[in-house]
Amino acid sequence: MNARIFVGLCFSLLWMSSVWADSQVRIGSKNFNESYLLSEIAAQLLEANGYEVERKFGLGGTLICYAALRKGEIDLYIEYTGTLGQAILNLPGKPHFEQLNAALSPLALQLLPPLGFNNTYAVAVREQDAQRFGLDTIEDLARVQGLRMVFSHEFLERQDGWPGLSATYGLAGPVRGIEHGLAYQAISDGAIDVTDVYSTDGELIRYDLRVLQDVRDYFPTYIAAPLVREDLPLGVTEVLAQLEGRIDEALMQKMNAQVVFFGASFAQVAAEFLTDFGIASEVKPPAVAADIVKNTLRHLQLTGISLGLAILVGLGMSLLVYTYSRLSQALIYFCGLLQTIPSIALLALMIPVFGIGITPAIVALFLYSLLPILRNAITALRGVDPTLIQVSQALGLTQAERLRFVLVPLSLPAIFAGIKTAAVISIGTATLAAFIGAGGLGDPIVVGLSLNNTQLILQGAIPAAALALCAELFFGHLERRLGRISGQSSADPIAK
Amino acid sequence: MTVGVEIEHVQKRFADKLVLDDVSIIAPEGQTTAIVGASGCGKTTLLRLVNGVLQPDAGTVRVFGECVPQENVELFCRRIGYAVQGAALFPHMTGRQNVTLIAKLQGWSEQDIESRFISLLREMDLPLDVADRLPRALSGGQQQRLGLCRALMLKPKLLLLDEPFSAVDPITRVEIYDRFLEVQSLEGVTSLLVTHDLREARRLAQYLVILRGGSVAQQGKTAEVLDEPANDYVRSLVASQLQ
Hints:
The complex is a heterodimer. Chain A is 59% helix and 10% strand. By secondary structure, chain A is mostly helical. In chain A, the strands form four sheets. In chain A, strands 3-10-4 form a three-stranded antiparallel beta sheet. In chain A, strands 8-5-9 form a three-stranded antiparallel beta sheet. In chain A, helix 14 (288-323) runs parallel beside helix 21, helix 15 (326-340) packs across helix 17 and helix 17 packs across helix 19. The radius of gyration of chain A is 28 Å and the shape is elongated. Mean pLDDT of chain A is 84; it is low at 16-22 and 489-496. Chain B is built from nine helices and ten strands. Chain B has helices at 43-50, 73-78, 95-105, 110-123, 140-152, 170-187, 198-204, 222-227, 232-242, and strands at 3-14, 17-28, 32-36, 58-63, 66-67, 80-84, 158-162, 190-195, 207-212, 215-221. In chain B, the strands form two sheets. A six-stranded mixed beta sheet of chain B has the order 6-7-8-3-9-10, sandwiched between helices. Chain B has a four-stranded antiparallel beta sheet with strand order 2-1-4-5, covered by helices on one side. In chain B, helix 3 crosses helix 4 (110-123) and helix 3 runs parallel beside helix 5 (140-152). Chain A binds chain B through residues 385, 387-388, 390-398, 401, 405-406, 409-410, 485-488, 494-496, and chain B through 48, 51, 53, 73-78, 80, 82, 84, 86, 88, 90-92, 101-102, 105, 132-137, 150, 160.
C-alpha cells in the first residue's frame, strides 16, 4: 500500500475516534457478569428516561473502574460497599453507608442508595440437606456431625474467610480446600456438603443450594450501589435512585442464572427486569454479524494506528541510532524493558495519564510494537555489507543519500519482518484493550470469559486469529517480495 | 610531466597502528600509476586519502593541484571515479541504476544520463541487456565492467582502482585489461591502481610504486623499477612474481 495513504488513513481514524459526544452519560462496568448486568440495567433505565448512554463495560477490575471514574472517563458504575471501604478508601472495619459517603465527598464522588442485595461470601449447602438436617443459619452447622466442609483455597487463607468464621461460630474442622471453579459441581454431585459461595451467584439456583444465614454478622458486607460523580446532572441521580432496594439476593441470583445458564443476554435480562418494574424498555435483538464487523473495525483501528505510529517512530529512531550509534544500546534496552511489562499492567499504567478508552490502548500497543520494529531495523542497517557502504561513500553519496538509496532499500526485508512481528503481537495484545474500555475483538472475549460462553469468546477469538493470519501473510509476502528485489533471497530465479 | 596526484609526507594511524609512514608519491596526469604491495601495507588507505573519505594525520594530498577538502567531501568524491574488487554493485539496483545513480544525484538530464550510459556500455563491450538486470544475474566479468562504468559515469579526470580485476578469471581479466586500456586512452583519465600483482602493473601502468609496511620501497617508471630494483625487497618481489 502506498505509505502516505496508509499513514493518512491512520490519522483520520485517530481523529474520528477522538470526536466523542460529550453530552452522554457514560456508564462503566467491571468484567464479571453481575457487574455487566447491573450496569446494563442502569443504562436501560436512563435510556428509558430519555438520556443518551455510552456503555464502557468490561473494564478490567475495580481499580480501573475507579480510576476511570475519578478521571471523568465514566460517570458511574456499580460498586460494592466492602470493596469501596477496603480496596479503594482503606477504611477500617465495616463502615456504614454514611461513613462511606462522607469519605467520598472530598473526592467529588457519591454512593447512591443501595440496590438491595449483599453480594458477600456465604456458606451454602444442598437444599435437600438443609431440609433434612434443619439447616438455616451458619450456627446450625455446629450441631450436625459428619458434613464434609470443603472451601475454596482463597477462602481458607483469607482473614475474613475460614479462620474468622470458625472462631465466630465455633466450628471445628476438618476442612479441605478445593478449586473455586469446581466447588459447585462437587457439591451438586454430592462429593462435598458445605462450601463457600458468593451470595448472588446464579449457580445457587441452578444447583438448588441454600445460603445459610450469617446471624452473627460475620461476613463483610458487599452491598451494591451506584457510585457516581457528583457533577452528574441531578436528573440522572434521581432516575438511578429509583433502583433503591429493588434487587434482593434472590432476584440477583435469578438474573445471574438467566445469563450464565440460560443464555439470555444482559440486555434481555435487564429489559425484563425493567418491564416488571413498570418501565417499558426495548431490547435490541442481538446483532452478531454487525457486532463482529464493529469489533473487527475497532480492532483494526487500534492496531492500525498503533502500528502506523510505531513504524514511523521506530524507523525514525533506527535511522537516528544508526547515525549516532552511541544511542543504540540504551534505546534498545529501553524498548526491551517496555516489552517485559505484562501487557495488562502496561494498559493499566496508561490510565492515570490517558484515562480509559482508545487513546491509552493505542499508546500501549504502540509501545509494544516499537521493539521488534526498532531492533530489526537497526540489526538490518548494521548488517549491510561494509564494502557497499565504502563504495557509496567513495562515489560521493551523502549520509542521507546512502541511507535512502543503499541502506534502507537493502534493509527493507528485515524491516518488514519486524513490522510483521509487531503487527501480530499487536493484534493479539489488542484483545486486552477491552479491559480499559477500548473495545475491539477483546470485548466479546471478555464478556464470554465472564459468562463461560464459548460462542461469545469465539466471536472475538476467530476474527482476531484471522486478522493475525492476514497480517502474517501480508507482511510475509511483502518481506519476500522485497527480499527478491534487493537480491537477498538465495532461492531465486534470474530477475527480469 | 604534469602532476595528477601528489602525496607529500603523509602519515596515517588507526588507533595505535601506523598504517602509512611519511609516504610521498607523485602520479603523473593522464597515466596509470600502480601501487603494489602485500596485503596490509596501506594501499587501500592511500586511495581513501586521495578522495577525502579519510584525512591524513600529517602531510598533504593534492589532486590536480587542489588540496583534498576536509569536509563536504561528497562533491569532491564525485569528481573521482572509484572501483573495487568484486565490483560491489548495489544488489537491489539494475545495471543501469547502479551506473547512473550518481549522475541522477548530480542532476544530469535524462538524455545526458542515457547517452553517457549507452556509450560506456559500448566502450566496455557490454551487451545492452545488462542494463535491466540485477547484478546477481550477471557474470563476474560483466559485474566488474559495470563497476568500471559506474566509476567512469561522471567523466572523472581521476580514477581510483582498488584491485578491480582480481576477482575475475584470467581469460576475462585479459579482456577487461584491453578494454580498460582502450577506455583510459579514450577518456584521457589519470588512474591510481592498487594491486598486489606485478604482472598486472606491468601491463597497465606506466608508473609503479612499491609499498612495504606503510612506506615507499621504490617508485618510478614501471620499466625502470622492474629492471633496476633499488633494494632487496623489491628485488625479491620482482623475482617471485615475474621470473
